[in-house]
């Protein structure tokens, strides 16, 4: 194409005019001499001459076909298009090679996102298999009775379950798709900015309270139609040792393990496709893995706040602290229930929720005034050729992810009942 371009000095295919502009070419249809062609005007952009083969409507550059559209037209076997507003007047081999490069880049990015989706889907599948294996242990009569009557045993079981199922599932899935020598993408470093970290912890905690309120509205709406959802929870403590074990099993181990998997392994591995996509993708998986209709919307909203805080501070400890505070709220309510009564427990919960929400709003205002230009959600990354919608679509449409989503949807549906549930 370059030779053809050089020989014809920028004329379109099929119009082989002589180099000397003073010699008028002949119209092959009429065999009549044509008017001299102003090559300079033609090569500068939109041209409009008396040559019927050369006439094109006067289009401003902003309405010119993009290189992507021209390349797509060429790929479909159509004739080359004029590329008004670009040097040379029409697309040459440089444009074709550029569009080939962009097309190949997009295809490679789509494959990488599919791989990331398969990794997350495999984690969901492994987690579900391991959770069912653990549930088989409770089926045995002796174990089942001990689990339902002994809080110490149920807390120890919950700790072991969290470490093996959640932590093990994410780690095995990550290593299954990672090169042997690839470093695990976790940032356990200490947050560098104490003020920013404190503000984001308050914002994250306040956001979790908003998530709890939204979940309550959705649950009330479903219950109005006679649909209820149940999920297992640790019983209220009956002695001091139970209280200690309950905090350890609910407010310490799960935040460490779940943040290790959802934010430490998954979200950090997705950051190369953009921070916003990493937060959204990890929040989606984090919500799905909870596997019940009550916790899925709550976990998704919380994960958005936690993911942002972890990326903004570049430390997993920020997310762990937020997660621990959220889980601690229900634990402290159980402690009030043990030492006082249900009224005192509810009063504490409402006061703590109100104070946490107000503190979160104030922290949010201060944060955006002080750190508004940091660009945490910027779209920089390896998949910049793809929109956020396309990236997320490729991520969730990978085969293993689809299988994992279907399995957890079935499990979430199984938690629905028409019998009123006491929480």
Overall strand count: 2
Q: Compute the number of structural domains.
A: 2
Cα-atom Rg, whole angstroms? Answer: 31 Å
- C-alpha termini separation: 73 Å
Assign an overall shape. Answer: globular
Following the backbone from N to C, one meets helices and strands in this order, namely HHHHHHHEHHHHHHHE
Please give the oligomerization state of what you see: single chain
Low-confidence stretches: 1-23, 29-64, 79-90
Overall pLDDT level: 77
- How many DSSP H or I helices? 14
State the strand order across the main sheet: 1-2
What is the share of helical residues? 55-70%
How much of the sequence lies in strands comes to under 5%
Structural class: mainly alpha
Task: Tell me about this structure.
The protein has 423 residues and is mostly helical. It has 14 helices and two strands; from the N terminus they run H-H-H-H-H-H-H-E-H-H-H-H-H-H-H-E.
């Amino acid at each position: 194409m370059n030779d053809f371009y050089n020989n014809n000095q920028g004329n379109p295919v099929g119009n082989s005019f002589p180099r000397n502009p003073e010699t008028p070419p002949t119209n092959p249809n009429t065999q009549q001499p044509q008017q001299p062609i102003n090559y300079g005007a033609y090569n500068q952009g939109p041209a409009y001459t008396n040559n019927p083969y050369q006439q094109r409507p006067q289009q401003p550059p902003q309405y010119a076909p993009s290189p992507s559209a021209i390349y797509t037209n060429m790929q479909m076997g159509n004739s080359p298009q004029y590329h008004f507003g670009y040097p040379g007047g029409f697309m040459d081999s440089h444009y074709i090679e550029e569009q080939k490069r962009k097309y190949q880049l997009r295809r490679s990015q789509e494959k990488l996102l599919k791989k990331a989706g398969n990794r997350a889907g495999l984690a969901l599948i492994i987690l579900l298999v391991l959770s069912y294996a653990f549930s088989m242990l409770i089926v045995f009569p002796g174990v089942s009775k001990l689990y339902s009557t002994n809080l110490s045993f149920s807390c120890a079981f919950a700790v072991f379950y969290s470490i093996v199922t959640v932590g093990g599932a994410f780690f095995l899935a990550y290593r299954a798709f990672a090169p042997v020598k690839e470093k695990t993408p976790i940032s356990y470093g200490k947050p560098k900015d104490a003020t920013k970290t404190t503000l984001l912890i308050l914002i994250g905690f306040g956001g979790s309270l908003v998530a709890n309120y939204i979940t309550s509205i959705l649950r009330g709406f479903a219950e109005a139609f006679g649909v209820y959802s149940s999920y297992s929870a640790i019983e209220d403590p009956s002695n001091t040792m139970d209280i200690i074990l309950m905090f350890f099993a609910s407010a310490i181990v799960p935040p460490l393990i779940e943040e290790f998997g959802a934010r430490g392994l998954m979200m950090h591995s997705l950051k190369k496709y953009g921070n916003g996509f990493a937060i959204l993708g990890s929040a989606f998986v984090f919500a799905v893995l909870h596997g019940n209709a009550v916790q899925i919307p709550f976990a998704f909203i919380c994960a958005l706040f936690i993911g942002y805080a972890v990326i903004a501070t570049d430390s997993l400890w920020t997310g762990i602290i937020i997660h621990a505070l959220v889980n601690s709220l229900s634990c402290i309510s159980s402690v009030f229930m043990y030492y006082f009564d249900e009224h005192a427990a509810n009063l504490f919960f409402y006061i703590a929720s109100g104070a946490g929400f107000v503190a979160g709003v104030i922290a949010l205002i201060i944060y955006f005034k002080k750190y508004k230009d940091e660009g945490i959600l910027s779209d920089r990354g390896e998949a910049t050729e793809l929109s956020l919608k396309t990236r997320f679509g490729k991520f969730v449409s990978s085969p293993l992810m689809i299988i994992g989503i279907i399995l957890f949807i079935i499990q979430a549906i199984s938690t629905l009942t028409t019998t009123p549930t006491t929480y």
